[in-house]
Amino acid sequence: MNGKEPNKGSLSKKVLSWHKLNGRHNLPWQKNINPYKVWISEIMLQQTQVSTVLPYFKLFIKKYPNIKSLANAKLEDILELWTGLGYYRRAENIYKTAQILKENYQFKFPKNYEDIINLPGIGKSTAGAILSIAYKKKYPILDGNVKRVIKRLFAIQGSANNDSNLWTLSESILPNKNNDIFSQAMMDVGSLVCTINNPTCSMCPLIKDCKSYKLKLTKIIPEKKKSNLIKKKKIYLLLIQDYKKDNFILMKKNNKEGLWANLWNLPSFSLKKELNNFVLKNKIKGKVKVFKNFSHNLTHYKLDISVFHIKLSNKLIIKNYNWKNIYDKIAISKPILITFEKLIKEIENANGNVR
Ligand code: SF4
After folding, report:
1. What's the gap between Cα 135 and its chain centre?
2. Does 42 qualify as catalytic in the annotation?
3. Which residue spans of the chain are classified as CATH 3.90.79.10?
4. Which of 317, 283, 296 lies closest to 237, judged by CA?
């Protein structure tokens, strides 16, 4: 065993050769590459797995094949396409960026780092991915997958585990050419081989250089996040079904700020007694029943969600609330999507298709 430093000079060559045979080459954003597709895919891939992103990306590019078509879209339309993908701030940032590209860049994606990093929702790693993959420039990336590879490769733990050190290391292993392929190859090493749990080191092009492998540290690098830091939050949702049409639900559009901004939501409360007061205050007639309990993870906390259901027995109008058809395409969060999926199943089991 020895813990000597990896030979940086030969790493990129090994990663590039490995990628030729083992990397992913048929992802939709790898075909007819352009900065627009790389930008959209990189934003969608932030904190989201490739398999989840695939159908969303295909739909998105079909509906908005270029910057011009996107810049003419309404925020509501982009949010609707984003339904279920999570981290909705990303969709808002795409909308804002499209407006900037329209106003300041004649619908063209900028080519230099300073302009790109100033666009909403684009951090250092996304900028590096766009510059390397779309423009073949020599820029490092440090998304979650690459960060894990770098940490393990150089056995980075404890106080050395800061991002500026990791950026320096990520930059130090860049090749002088083929940076477009190298960025994708490093992401592939992270997601296909150097996985969070049980990395398959025997299949890794970096095995001979990897300090964590030599020192048997792959289980403790990267350090696991302490689970007791995850906060829990309780929310109560009220699913109010119209007295005549089962597929019409009472909803309200969220404010422009806060969790699930601009999305359509069910009446939502942090305490059960607030839900009860809402029912009493608005003279809502019908039996309140438990509909579904489930949890939903957000970046910094876990939501514990209880959905209650009322089938109305008479007409109801509440200020600022609208009746929405659950079969219509509207922008909603994942918990509302989960709730509607269950409701649709129940309606179709009971009545057949009511669309
Ligand atoms: S040898 Fe193992 S731990 Fe090291 S980079 Fe490769 S997969 Fe990751």
Report:
1. 24
2. yes
3. 227-351
4. 296
The pLDDT of residue 1 is above 80: no
Residue nearest to atom 2 of ligand 1 (CA): 201
| Distance, CA of 256 to CA of 75 (rounded, Å) | 11
The CATH label, of 2.60.40.1120, 1.10.260.40, 1.10.340.30, 3.10.560.10, for the domain at 8-214 is: 1.10.340.30
Atom of ligand 1 nearest to the CA of 149: 5
C-alpha to C-alpha distances, 111 to 114, 122, 132, 184, 236, nearest whole angstrom:
9, 14, 11, 19, 47
Residue of 42, 114, 274, 341 marked active site: 42
Average pLDDT over residues 239-252: 95
199 touches ligand 1 (CB under 6 Å): yes
This prediction has a pTM of 0.85
Domain 227-351: which CATH class? alpha beta
* Type of residue found at 202: S
As a whole number of angstroms, the distance between CA 83 and CA 282 comes to 29
| Cα(265)–Cα(236) distance, integer angstroms | 12
Long-range contacts of 78-83 (CB under 8 A, 24+ apart): 79/262, 79/263, 79/331, 80/329, 80/330, 80/331, 81/56, 82/56, 82/331, 83/329, 83/330, 83/331, 83/332, 83/333, 83/334, 83/337
What is the per-residue pLDDT for 159? 65
